[in-house]
Structures are given as C-alpha cells and as structure tokens.
Amino acid sequence: MTTLAGVQGNGWSVIGADSRVIDDGAIVDLPKNAGKIFRKSGYILAVAGDFRTAQIMQHSFAFPKPPTDGSIDALDKFFTTELIPVWKAEYEDIGYTPDKDIGNTILVSLSSTIYAIGDDWTWARDKRNIYAAGSGAAYAIGALSAYGVPKTADEAVAQIKAAIKIASQYDHNTSEPAIIYTQES
C-alpha cells in the first residue's frame, strides 16, 4: 500500500508520501509528480490505497475554487457541500468505482489545513495536527508523536522524512525517498 504522513502548524502544512507502489506483485518506485502525492490548483493531495484515485485527481479532475473566507467553518462547509460532491460526480462521469477491497484514505491540504478523507467520503481533522495513512501509518504516526510538535514547516519536513524512513524499515509496502510538499497560507 503506502505511507502518508502530514503535520499542520500555524499558517503552514506539510504532507509527505513514500514512493513505492505494489500491484499484483510488481514493485514500482515512483518519480516525483507521477505518483501518490501531488500539488494542483492550490491543493496538496496524497493518496493511500487505490492508486487510480491519485491518477484521476491529478490528470482529470478540475478542483473547485476554495472559499475566499479561509476560516475553518468555511473550509469544513466547502469540503462537505462542494468539494466532495463534485469529486464523487467526477468518478461517476468517467465510470470509476473505487476498489472497496483496497480502500482509500486521502490527505488533502487546502489553505494550510489538512483533511483526511476516507473511502466513505467522510473527512476528519485531527486536533493533534498529525496525520498518517496507509500500511505504514502506525509506524509514521508513532514516529511523529515521539518527535513532538514541530515549530516550523522545515522541522515538520525533517520529521515527516524521518517518519517515512522508519515506516520503510518495518513495512515492505513503503520505500524511500519521501516526496514532501509544503503549503503556507
């Protein structure tokens, strides 16, 4: 599967992903911008699970413009009433049905706020401001928790890189290098 890790700070967010995909026994090490994490239209997305999801979102989906009011309430409402319904409609329009056996978790950063979206289209924000998903998530979240709260985006980048390295040592579905994107408001 994969390992995703994210940290949200005051006015910034950082999301990283490992660079390995395993499908039917084939191991593929992905280059930057051709994989499970990407930046598009002011969003950062990282996908754990069905890899087709990332390809659709990166190459087919037209992301809606976020609200000008960047408050948490406005972003929550936007995710619930605009982004997710349009996202679901995109899947229907191209005839894509997510693989329920694999499932998906998608980390999305918008306006430096991270949302974790499940394959049932629910979203969550973590009050600890740390996130992880995929088969190496337990290792990554443990590492991020042990490091403590980073004060800067640069510290978060270093912690995420280290967390994915740790996950790659224990989860055969995870491999370095980590691909990391930062977003600042």
Description:
There is one protein chain. The protein is of the alpha+beta class. It has a single domain, classed as Aminohydrolase, N-terminal nucleophile (Ntn) domain (Glutamine Phosphoribosylpyrophosphate, subunit 1, domain 1). The chain contains 4 helices and 11 strands, in the order ββββββααββββααβ. The chain has helices spanning 51-59, 72-94, 137-147, 153-170; strands spanning 3-9, 12-17, 20-23, 26-29, 37-40, 43-49, 104-110, 113-118, 123-124, 130-134, 179-184. Strands 5-6-7-8-9 form a 5-stranded antiparallel sheet, with helices on one face. Strand 1 (3-9) and strand 2 (12-17) form a beta hairpin. Helix 3 crosses helix 4. The protein is globular and about 40 Å long. The model has no long low-confidence stretch (mean pLDDT 92).
Layout of secondary structure:
Layout: E1 3-9, E2 12-17, E3 20-23, E4 26-29, E5 37-40, E6 43-49, H1 51-59, H2 72-94, E7 104-110, E8 113-118, E9 123-124, E10 130-134, H3 137-147, H4 153-170, E11 179-184
Antiparallel strand pairs: 1-2, 1-10, 2-11, 3-4, 5-6, 6-7, 7-8, 8-9
Helix pairs in contact: 3-4
Report the structural category.
alpha+beta
CATH top level class name: Alpha Beta
Low-confidence stretches: none
- Please compute the radius of gyration using only Cα atoms: 15 Å
- At CATH level 3, the topology is Glutamine Phosphoribosylpyrophosphate, subunit 1, domain 1
Share of helical residues: 25-40%
- Overall CATH architecture: 4-Layer Sandwich
Strand order of the biggest β-sheet:
5-6-7-8-9
Average pLDDT: 92
Main sheet summary? 5 strands, antiparallel
Annotated CATH homologous superfamily: Aminohydrolase, N-terminal nucleophile (Ntn) domain
